[in-house]
Amino acid sequence: MPSAAWKRPVEGPATLRRPLGVAVSSQWPWSPQPGCLIGAVNLKSSNRTPVVQEFGSVELSCIITDSQTSDPRIEWKKIQNGETTYVFFDNKIQGVLVGRAEILGKTSLKIWNVTRTDSALYRCEVVARNDRKEIDEIMIELTVQVKPVTPVCRVPKAVPVGKMATLHCQESEGHPRPHYSWYRNDVPLPTDSRANPRFRNSSFHLNSETGTLVFSAVHKDDSGRYYCIASNDAGSARCEEQEMEVYDLNIGGIIGGVLVVLAVLALITLGICCAYRRGYFINSKQDGESYKNPGKADGVNYIRTDEEVIFSKPGNPGEPSRKNSVPPWKLCGSPRKISE
């Protein structure tokens, strides 16, 4: 066992030193007499940023490198969302870690069956009453990785040439947040079509953070089978592929449809005009009562009902009138005068 001695310089500028004769004990643990505090507790960790996948196990390393206290007090605290809770206190596992954690090597904390809610800051605190510096602490950041689940993809089924199209991909379980990539016919798409000559006939942009694939103007070459993959350090997952068809606009068909609509409107307008000329929009008196047409000077009365036009000759009120139905195709013609 090596020996040691304490020395102090003599008074004045001389550099000669002489031993004081103070022996250093080789016994450990060593408990100093009350009032003799010469140590300082210090902590270190072999890994301050451990990473573990969900449902695995992890050790939060906290090691005492220097202390004169044989039985220091150990505490572990969890800091999450601005709240601090005990996970080891009074020599017992506390809170959410009960039944799936233990203390290793006096100060380190081991956790089994880790879940995503265990991702947090953990603080190891040691109190050594017999040390000159009684308290020390160390912070450890635990990251629990969660594999993504199958993302939800939305792909438009049909888009006309030249129109904008947006494809969506979203996943909510992965931790850390996954990155997204899109595939067309099993070929990965770049984040920008302009960056790859292979896609010079396309015009799209992919946001790998949000999973959105936007075509500013689709081309025929953009037709195909699309699917998305969400991935992080814990794994990846993909959605089912979906077909997107890009079709040409039928200009001739559109023009023909417009012409048909215009023709129908013209026929309706013509029918309204004819009905107006025949007097269908003039309030009539009771059925069978004649009225004088001021535009006719021949002395012939014209009588109409709701369903037919009746012509009668004046002068014989008791004589039954003769009815003469007018075909629909002659409604717009001038009314005919019935001879006596």
Automatic annotation (TrEMBL):
Protein name stated in the entry: Junctional adhesion molecule C
PROSITE patterns: IG_LIKE
Protein topology in the membrane: Single-pass type I membrane protein
InterPro entries linked: Ig-like_dom, Ig-like_dom_sf, Ig-like_fold, Ig_sub, Ig_sub2, Ig_V-set, JAM-C
A Pfam family: Ig_3
One example of a Gene Ontology biological process annotation: spermatogenesis
Family classification: Belongs to the immunoglobulin superfamily.
UniProt keyword Mitochondrion, yes or no: no
Domain Ig-like: 34-136, 148-245
Subcellular location: Cell junction, Desmosome; Cell junction, Tight junction; Cell membrane; Secreted
Annotated function: Promotes chemotaxis of vascular endothelial cells and stimulates angiogenesis.
Transmembrane segments: 251-276
Subunit structure, interactors included: Interacts with ITGAM. Interacts with GORASP2.
Region (Disordered): 311-340
Phylogenetic classification of the source organism: Eukaryota, Metazoa, Chordata, Craniata, Vertebrata
GO molecular function, one term: cell-cell adhesion mediator activity
Superkingdom of the source species: Eukaryota
Keywords associated with the record: Cell adhesion, Cell junction, Cell membrane, Differentiation, Disulfide bond, Glycoprotein, Immunoglobulin domain, Lipoprotein, Membrane, Palmitate, Secreted, Signal, Spermatogenesis, Tight junction, Transmembrane, Transmembrane helix
Entry GO terms, CC: bicellular tight junction; cell-cell contact zone; desmosome; extracellular region; plasma membrane; protein complex involved in cell adhesion
Keyword Membrane: yes
